[in-house]
Amino acid sequence: MLYFVCYDIVNQKRLAKISKYLEKRGIRMQYSFFSCDIEGKEFKIIKKDLSKMIDEEKDKLCFIPICENCIKKIIYIGCDESFILPDFVVL
User: Fold this and answer.
1) Domain coverage including residue 57
2) pTM, whole model, 2 decimals?
């Protein structure tokens, strides 16, 4: 399933760690916003890993599931195609 993962991390060291972690698992769409194709067990692992990295009293982390119908409705405007999802992401 496709998830948009976004965060607001207060500490620069934690921010860098989380950013590097997500860069290996998805496509950066904005500074703190990633598109990740995550399935079943992998989602639980990623959620657990990221939960350990944040300070729950100061930081925010959000996973937004995107259904196949919603993926088809995404509209891109502008010249930067670096965050356009490849065809294989569509489930």
Assistant:
1) 2-89
2) 0.81
